[in-house]
UniProtKB/TrEMBL annotation:
Protein name: Rab-GAP TBC domain-containing protein
Entry's Gene Ontology BP terms: intracellular protein transport
GO molecular function: GTPase activator activity
Superkingdom to which the source organism belongs: Eukaryota
Residues in the signal sequence: none
Cellular component aspect of the GO annotation: cytoplasm
Pfam family, one: RabGAP-TBC
UniProt domain Rab-GAP TBC: residue ranges: 53-274
Length: 335
């Protein structure tokens, strides 16, 4: 039997002020989610344009499904939440500790790898390094102390459990996922543990994302030349370094350059591209360049750089950018 504890019906409540098209999208997604086994392909077709403020109530469930945190069988969703909440509490207790007690063969100056004191000081260094970024990450949306502490814990535990170094950019990823969870209208989905496990899943797929990969920069540049050679040649003539775009856009997946609602919508689209995420990212980036083409094509290097490093201040229609990216992707596949 389907576990009725998980509320699907509330998705279509309080639709006043929402356009007819968006009301229909909510109801269509809801109909798919009512099935015991969710039709993932059908869900992707409905959601690939991303969610606006009017449809953002769908995001929490959809992200969990597309990331693989929720199984497609709906009857297990509540069980997943409860089990992982308990697991996460145990992880916090086990890994976030105060100074260790005094031991005969251990002391604060020990540098032995099995020293509790040495491990404690390494943990403190990692926590402090993360905290320096957290205090300036999405301050408007996650500026409350409780959210900063959550974000710090998520990043710290991810690094510690995976024995990985913290690098800038991870904070932007974790911030979007935490915000997605804590702003969900469904209280059952407002929890730190879901944010932690969704972040862990994402980092598994993006573990190589924080390294500059020149062959991918070249692939993007070649694709731009194929789509719009005039714009490409102008950027090249102005000595535009395409690796700058790679760092700003591809490494952190547009998580930093926009209002948080726009970054979340871009991620909606990327998660719907389960097997073509990197490819779609290229078309999305090219679509942004085309959207800004009128100013870029007449700009010198300084003007171009100013535009591309301040996308949030540009007059951009994100719906047009997303639609064009999908169109470019389809057109290039025909070639």
């Amino acid at each position: 039997m389907i576990n009725q504890d998980f509320d699907i019906e509330s998705l279509s409540q309080n639709l006043g002020g929402i356009s007819n098209d968006n009301q229909q999208l909510i109801k269509d997604v809801q109909n798919i989610l009512r099935n015991e086994i969710v039709d993932e392909d059908g869900l992707v077709k409905l959601c690939q344009q991303g969610f606006t403020n009017q449809t953002s109530r769908l995001r929490g469930i959809i992200w969990r499904l597309l990331l693989g945190y929720f199984p497609l069988n709906r009857k297990y969703w509540t069980q997943v939440i409860i089990k992982n909440r308990d697991n996460y509490n145990n992880i916090k207790i086990e890994n976030i500790k105060k100074a260790p007690p005094q031991k005969k063969n251990d002391h604060p100056l020990s540098r032995n790898t099995d020293s509790d004191w040495n491990n404690h000081f390494q943990d403190q260094q990692l926590w402090s390094k993360i905290q320096k970024d957290v205090i300036r990450t999405r301050v408007k949306e996650l500026g409350k102390e409780e959210f900063r502490e959550m974000l710090n814990r998520i990043l710290f535990l991810c690094c510690k459990l995976n024995k990985m170094d913290y690098v800038q950019g991870m904070n932007e990823f974790a911030a979007l996922i935490l915000y997605m969870c804590m702003s969900d209208p469904n209280e059952k989905l407002q929890n730190e543990s879901d944010a932690f496990y969704c972040f862990m899943i994402l980092m598994t797929s993006l573990k190589n994302n924080f390294q500059l990969q020149k062959e991918k920069v070249r692939a993007f540049q070649d694709l731009l030349k194929k789509v719009d050679w005039k714009l490409h040649d102008h950027l090249v003539n102005q000595k535009m370094d395409f690796s700058i775009l790679y760092v700003k856009w591809f490494m952190i997946l547009f998580a930093q350059d926009f209002h948080i609602d726009d970054s979340l919508r871009i991620w909606d689209c990327l998660f719907c591209q389960k097997n073509n995420r990197e490819e779609f990212l290229y078309y999305l980036a090219i679509s942004f360049l085309i959207q800004l083409r009128e100013d870029l094509i007449v700009g010198d290097f300084g003007q171009i750089l100013l535009i591309l490093q301040n996308l949030e201040k540009q007059d951009i229609n994100l719906s047009e950018v997303i639609q064009r990216a999908h169109l470019l992707q389809k057109e290039q596949k025909k070639c």
